[in-house]
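Is this the right way to post structure tokens for a design question? Let me know if I should format differently. Anyway, here goes:
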């Protein structure tokens, strides 16, 4: 089985590093890239073709609310997981835009890996 290819799109470099640390034990995950805003995330998705995009909603420039439908329309087989500091009601808007799931940033240590696995199983 090939590794699940992951792109992290978040404006906070420390948070991107934290995501990598949280998921470092999973030897079947491959981090293919990072982006600091939605526009770069859309471009990196086009170039890198990840299986899963971890997408922050609130970023300067193009935010995740605008990037998400662009990624989903151009790459319908790519799962997009919304990472948000917002509450669940606001994150639900991301689901309406086509996200495969969402995780509140404060819960990434316990919820992110299982959600990536579920999304990767659906796309593979």
């Amino acid at each position: 089985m090939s590794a699940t290819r992951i792109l992290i799109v978040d404006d906070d470099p420390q948070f991107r590093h934290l995501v990598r640390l949280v998921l470092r034990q999973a030897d079947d995950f491959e981090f293919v890239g990072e982006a600091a805003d939605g526009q770069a995330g859309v471009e990196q998705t086009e170039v890198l073709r990840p299986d899963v995009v971890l997408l922050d909603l609130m970023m300067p420039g193009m935010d995740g609310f605008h990037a998400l439908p662009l990624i989903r329309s151009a790459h319908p087989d790519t799962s997009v997981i919304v990472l948000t500091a917002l509450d669940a009601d606001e994150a639900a808007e991301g689901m309406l835009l086509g996200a495969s799931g969402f995780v509140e940033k404060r819960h990434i240590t316990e919820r992110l890996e299982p959600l990536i696995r579920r999304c990767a199983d659906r796309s593979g």
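Format looks fine. Someone answered above. Worth noting: The chain has one domain: 4-31+39-99. DSSP finds five helices and five strands in the chain.
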